[in-house]
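Lab notebook: predicted structure, single chain.

Context: the supervisor wants predicted structures on file for every construct in the current expression panel, including those that have not yet been purified. This is the next one on the list. No modifications to the sequence; it matches the entry in the shared construct table.
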Amino acid sequence: MKKALLICFLFIFSIANSQNLTIKQLLSLKGVFISEVYNDLTKKGWKFCSEDNKKNGGQTTYLYTEKNGNYYFLTLSYPEDYHINNIRLQFLNSEKCKLYLNQIKALGFKKKSSLKEKNNITKIFENSKTIIKFVSENKKREYEHEFFYFIYIVGK
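Prediction complete. Output recorded below exactly as produced.
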């Protein structure tokens, strides 16, 4: 019994110490001026990765790497006024996938549709202001399958 509790505790601890942004925190980035997020993200261990600016907007990408090697890419897109309007999170961690889906539901987002095409499963959730598209992509490698997960957050 003690061994089972210890394993459960270690599992929860490892997930809690993984990528440190919740769906609620990701949603709070919408509308924020792009230069204001750098300090908050770097304090949480995110590293600036790349920026692509054009005269009608652009996007900035950050990278977060866990101690176990899992990595996450966060891409923030913005129009010419530099206020974030689209968010994309890419990751491989299937445990985090389940946590994010539960957070989306707990925040009152309703599932509007679910699509399966080729190697992708897409679930679309929305509330009165925001659409969240959750994509599970099965990439077939030579001898194995690897799942990539994407969360897209956009305004209505």
